[in-house]
Amino acid sequence: MNGKSLYRWGRKNSQGTSTQTGEGMILTPLLRTAAILVLVLAAAFGVWRLVVYRSPVDRGIAALNEAFAAQRPLQSRVTELRYARYSSTRGDKSAINQSALDLSSLLLQTALHDAPSTQTRHAVGRVYLLKGEFDRAITEFEEALKTSPANARLHSDLAAALLEKAKLERRDDESGRSETTLAGSYDQVNEALTLDSSMLDARFNRALLFEAMGLDPQALADWEKYLSLDSNSQWATEVRSHIEEIRKRTERASKREADLFTEFTNAQQAGVDDQMWQVFSKSHLRTGNYITNTIVDKYLDAATTARKDEADKWSQALFRLGELSRTRSGDSFTSDMSRAYSG
Fold first, then answer.
1. What is the mean pLDDT of residues 132-157?
2. What is the pTM of this model?
3. CB hemisphere CA count around 120 (13 angstroms)
4. CA dist list (Å): 97 to 63, 68, 100, 101, 289
5. Helices marked H in 49-176 — which ranges?
6. 314, 308 in Cβ contact below 8 A?
7. Res. 186: pLDDT tops 90
8. Are 104 and 110 in contact (CB under 8 A)?
9. What are the CA-CA distances from residue 316 to residues 46, 268, 337, 338, 342 (Å)?
10. Can you tell me the distance from the alpha carbon of 265 to that of 38, in angstroms, rounded to the nearest whole number?
11. Contact predicate 87/71, CB 8 Å
């Protein structure tokens, strides 16, 4: 074989076994296969990160849901937690998956230790909240809000922690601290709804808060608003139970108040001061005394429609009630009120 033939043979064989790059580098079939494999693996890793991979926080929240899948320990809603029936029995841990709760706590505490952030603090706060460690939950939520003050979910969960803490304070502490704690819960849940008016967790929790504060009309309005946003879930079924209970409670209260006023007017007409005082004493409400409020309403209605005899009758009843209150309890408020209206 001469030199020219040898050259043609080399060109033919090299073209069948390698590829020349723009820089003159030769890629053999083995290297080309390896490069393709690297690209495929990189693409697969990207898909895995997007579709399959779950962060420690994601796995911790999943374990937390598993821990309370059969029963939730709090009446309040906690963000990222799926529905579970509520048990009102204090300290009932029979339905808790303790292994899942321990796993959740480990994953989330480790994530917070390794990478403190709004997300990890919020997640750990949820664990404390569901375990009933309200002060620790409040601390985590407040720390997280320092770096994310416009986070509606954080405000909602902080409101839930304060509400649940207030319930304990009201039951175990007569100092009145619970009212301050309830006020803090109100501020937080309002902020959550200001940031996101369609947020179901916050809407649910504010209705619970109004019930705890004895404000049934406001609670009813929030429950009905909730149903306009979510009418088919298991949460919605629970909401309907609250609405039904408020309506029953309102009916009972209306009947009781009507009975009390009838009893008071009968005692007044009979001139039995002791009975008048007893009825008045058991008619105190958050909005004042029901007997006093009703007499004032009746007086104003008669006075503004020129029914002088009827107005005088209710003015005299208010004056007599004021004298009883001043002489028996030293409270001159009703007496002063009667003079103001009679003047």
1. 98
2. 0.71
3. 14
4. 9, 7, 5, 6, 49
5. 56-67, 98-114, 118-130, 134-147, 152-172
6. no
7. yes
8. no
9. 84, 10, 12, 8, 9
10. 92
11. yes
What do you get for the CA distance between the two ends of the chain, in Å? Answer: 136
Instruction: Kindly tell me the sign of the dihedral angle through the C-alpha atoms of 59, 63, 66, 68.
Output: negative
Q: Which residue, 66, 70, 83, 88, is CA-closest to 200?
A: 83
Residue with tokens 């706590």: 105
Angle at 317 between CA 313 and CA 320, to 5 degrees: 140
Please identify which residue in the block is written with the tokens 């009390």.
260
> What H or E segment, with its residue span, contains residue 302?
helix 290-303
Nearest partner of 87 among 66, 73, 70, 69, judged by Cα: 73
Q: Which residues have C-beta within 8 Å of that of residue 180, sequence separation ≥ 6?
A: none
Q: What is the pLDDT of residues 54-106, one digit of tens each?
A: 899 999 999 999 999 999 999 999 999 999 999 877 667 778 999 999 999 99
